[in-house]
Amino acid sequence: MLAMYVRMSSACRRTWNGFSVEGFKELRPFAALAVPSALMICLEFWAFEIVVLASGLLPNPQLETSVLSICLNTSILLFMIPLGLSYSVSTRVSNELGAGQHQAAKLAMRVVMCMALCSGFVLTLAMTLLRHVWGHMYSNDQEVVSYYAKMLPVLGISFFVDGLHASLSGVLTGCGKQKIGAAINLGAFYLAGIPMALLLGFVFHMKGMGLWLGMMCGSITKVLLFASVACFIDWNKEVSRVH
C-alpha cells in the first residue's frame, strides 16, 4: 500500500524520481546505523517473548501464559507512546547537531525526559486505578482477570521505566550511538533481566509476577546505563563529529 501511495501520489513526485542504481550507493554507512538501530528494538522485544515462552514451564501454564501474553500485549500497545517520543527526540537531536546547535540538542533531551515522566506517571496511575476493569478487554475468565489485576500495578511501573529508557534511547540514536545502545540492550536484558526473571519466577516461586519483575530489573539496568552514557555526552564534540 505504501508503494502504491508513493507511486501514485502527487505529493511524492518532488521527493522520489523512481528506482535508480544511484540509490544503492553509500549503503554501508546507512547499514552501520540501521542494523544497530533495529537490534536496539528487537533485542528488547525478543527478551520479553522469551519470558512469555518460559511461563509455559510454570505450574498452571495455561493461566500464566495467558496473563503474561496479555501483559506483553498491553505493554507493546502503550509502548507506542514513548516510542513516538523516542523517534521525535532522535530526529530533533540529530537535526540540531547537524545545525551546530548543541544547546538546543541538550534542551531537546531535557524536554523529552520531562514528557516521558509526565506521560509515564499518568498512564501508571490510570492502569492502577483501572486494574479491575482493564482485564475484561482481553478475557471473560475471572481467574485470568483477577491475576491480571494483580499484575497491572507492576506493569504500570514497568511502563514508567520503559518511557524513560525509550526517550534516552532516542537521544543516543540522534547522536549516532546505536552500537552502544544495542550493546546495552544485550547486557541489560540477556545478562541481567532474563536471568533475574528465571530466578524470581522459578527459584523463588514468584511465578508470572517474578518473571515480569525480573524483566523490570533489566529495564531499570538499561535506564541507568543509558542515563550514564547520556550524562557524559560531550555535545560540543558531537557537533564537531557531525561536521
Explain briefly what this protein structure is.
This protein has 243 residues and is mostly helical.
Our count of helices gives: 9
Strand content: under 5%
Secondary-structure-derived class: mainly alpha
Radius of gyration: 21 Å
Give the beta-strand count.
Answer: 0
Largest sheet: none
Q: Could you list the spans in which at least 5 consecutive residues all have pLDDT below 50?
A: none
SSE topology string: HHHHHHHHH
Basic shape: globular
Helix content: over 70%
Number of structural units classed as domains = 1
Rounded mean pLDDT is 92
Terminal Cα span: 37 Å
GO molecular function: antiporter activity; xenobiotic transmembrane transporter activity
Organism: Eragrostis curvula (weeping love grass)
Keywords: Membrane, Transmembrane, Transmembrane helix
Protein name: Protein DETOXIFICATION
Notable characteristics:
243 residues, mainly alpha, Protein DETOXIFICATION, antiporter activity, transmembrane, xenobiotic transmembrane transporter activity, membrane
Walk me through what this model shows.
It is a single chain. The model has no long low-confidence stretch (mean pLDDT 92). The chain has helices at 2-8, 27-54, 61-98, 102-129, 131-134, 142-174, 178-203, 207-231, 235-242. It contains nine helices and no strands.
